[in-house]
Design a protein that fits this description.
By secondary structure, this protein is mainly alpha-helical. It has one domain. The protein contains 13 helices and 2 strands, in the order ααααββααααααααα. Strands 1-2 form a two-stranded antiparallel ribbon. β1 and β2 form a beta hairpin. The two termini are 37 Å apart.
């Protein structure tokens, strides 16, 4: 919205700053951060009052989690609120990719909110049936995939770009939309599975969003894409404003989610943020790079898949408990140790993902 202040500029004054994506990204970051600090405590107080017993704790979970009983959930509302406010304030409203990413974020946030509400109101870990959640997620992701494809350059429509290999595109044709749906829905659920310890999911999401924001800015500038030999996707640079807002809102939430957490992100936050990462990857034509940047989420999801399939086949378990962060809890690792080491892994993977921009 503030971009339109450039209409007051004569080309050399303060209002001219609003033309620059980097300036508006900084503004979005600070806005979301302040939003988190200002509204964090009041929101937690409301959630604690309304929810009473807080998020139900799984009976078969690690023993150390029972001390968290009574902690309210739906803290993702704080992140999504900060993200939405800052993005609408600082991003250009005429950019289709910004609206696509916001659509996915809010759509998955709504699914997560209903699921969290069902769990809290019934004091059950069941929530909304998995098939219903999946169907709704697929519908949202399909709409976003079609939306994004419409606004990609003709030469990139239905094409899958391969990292590292210069100018290599795979024409997926009619399978591109289903592939994009898998990317978005898979990312949403992978982040959801990772959200099991205080602060575990939010920092890797922020790191991944930061890396994807840099990628979005790079592929949205023709001079950068010519230098880096990556595909130019006009308009994606504006996504940097969104990712900066996500980073600021994430820090505001982490202030209250640091061990011991005053509030849980809940499905409201994890599904929304995971879906957002997937949507950004689809918009920027970096779907495969997301698997590197968000490699931690991939490992968490794969640990569950392997555990379930192996148990059904043999009756035995590969891990002491899945997702894999619970495996290390069962092995005796302290929760802060797991969280910080997973943060470090996420940062390493993000650097590797960013390196694919230049390694051609």
């Amino acid at each position: 919205m503030l971009y339109w202040l450039t209409a007051l500029s004569d080309g050399g004054d303060f209002f001219n700053l609003f033309r620059y994506i980097t300036f508006r990204a900084g503004g979005a970051f600070l806005t979301a951060l302040v939003f988190g600090f200002v509204f964090g405590k009041p929101l937690i107080n409301v959630l604690r009052k309304k929810q009473g017993k807080g998020q139900p704790i799984r009976d078969d979970g690690p023993e150390g989690h029972f001390v968290k009983a009574g902690t309210p959930t739906m803290g993702g509302l704080l992140i999504v609120g900060a993200l939405l406010t800052a993005t609408l304030l600082w991003a250009r409203w005429d950019n289709p990719f910004v609206w696509m990413v916001l659509f996915v974020t809010l759509g998955f946030a709504l699914i997560g909110f209903v699921d969290d509400y069902a769990k809290v109101s019934k004091q059950s870990t069941a929530g909304v049936p998995g098939k219903v959640r999946l169907a709704l997620g697929i519908a949202i992701a399909a709409a976003a995939a079609v939306w994004s494809t419409w606004h990609h350059p003709d030469a990139l429509q239905n094409q899958l770009a391969l990292p590292v290999f210069k100018d290599v595109l795979l024409n997926l044709g009619m399978f591109y939309i289903p592939f994009s749906v898998i990317v978005i829905v898979g990312s949403a659920n992978a982040v959801n599975l990772t959200d099991g310890l205080d602060g575990l999911a939010i920092m890797p999401v922020m790191i991944a969003a930061g890396a994807l924001g840099i990628i979005a800015y790079a592929v949205g500038r023709v001079d950068f894409t010519e230098y880096l030999d990556v595909h130019y996707v006009p308009g994606t640079g504006e996504i940097l404003v969104f990712t900066a807002a996500l980073f600021g809102g994430g820090l505001g939430f982490l202030w209250y989610n640091a061990p011991p957490a005053a509030v849980f992100m809940g499905d409201t936050g994890s599904l929304a943020l995971g879906g957002a990462l997937g949507a950004i990857a689809v918009a920027t034509k970096h779907e495969l790079v997301l698997a590197i940047v968000g490699g931690l989420f991939v490992v968490e999801a794969l640990s569950v898949i392997v555990q379930v399939l192996y148990f059904k086949r043999t009756g035995r378990r590969v891990f002491l408990m899945a997702p894999i962060h619970h495996h290390y809890e069962k092995k005796g690792w302290a929760e802060p140790t797991i969280v910080i080491r997973f943060w470090i892994i996420s940062l390493i993977l993000a650097m590797i993902g960013l390196a694919t921009l230049k390694v051609r």
